[in-house]
Amino acid sequence: METNEQELLEEADMLFRKMVRKFVKERDKIKIEGVMLPSFVILEKIMKDGEQRLTDLAEELDFTSGAITALCDKLEKRGLAVRKRHKKDRRIVWLDITGDGRDFINRNYYLKMNSISVLFNGFSQEEMKEQINGYRRLITNIERFSTTINEIANENECKKKI
Where is the HTH marR-type domain (predicted)? Predict the structure, then answer.
């Protein structure tokens, strides 16, 4: 690999990691009527698609099971959502939005488009299309990231033993 190519890869890696950290840090500073943005996203998903299993919410929204539990606790405490146990299998927990939750989302719905606009401010439509394609390729690469690196590490470890 050329030094120039290696430098580009290292800079892309550093900027990608920095972008992810900054986004999470900034996202977690946003409160809407005292509700954190990730909780807003959960309510919005339920309002759009109906009640959701906690495990499905965690997977689809990329939250850990601990994070989804903590967020649901706060939503229930505020009266914006309610947990429901599955009638036949009590281990399955669903989350549904309450009337107050629906009012909250309706009152603040415009914030979603505003947040997206702020995030992608200044990009042309062509640049946005290029980014979307880049994100899709990155997601594909990320989906095989740990498997690929672990395979390389295992091969390397086997060579060490020989």
Answer: 5-144
Q: Is 45 exposed, middle or buried (0-12, 13-18, 19+ CB in 10 A)?
A: middle
Whether residue 52 contacts residue 101, with contact meaning beta carbons closer than 8 Å, is answered with no
What tokens were used for 98?
């309450």
| pTM beyond 0.85, yes or no | no
Do 106 and 50 lie in one domain? The reply is yes
Rounded-to-integer distance, Cα 29 and Cα 25, Å: 7
Say whether both 40 and 60 belong to one domain: yes
One domain for residues 156 and 93: no
- Is 85 in contact with 92 (CB distance < 8 Å)? yes
| Structural domain harbouring 54 | 33-121
In 3D, which of 87, 104, 86 has the Cα closest to residue 95?
86
What are 37-58's pLDDT values in tens digits? 999 999 999 999 999 999 999 9
Tens digits of residue pLDDT in 63-108: 898 999 999 999 999 999 999 987 777 778 899 999 999 999 999 9
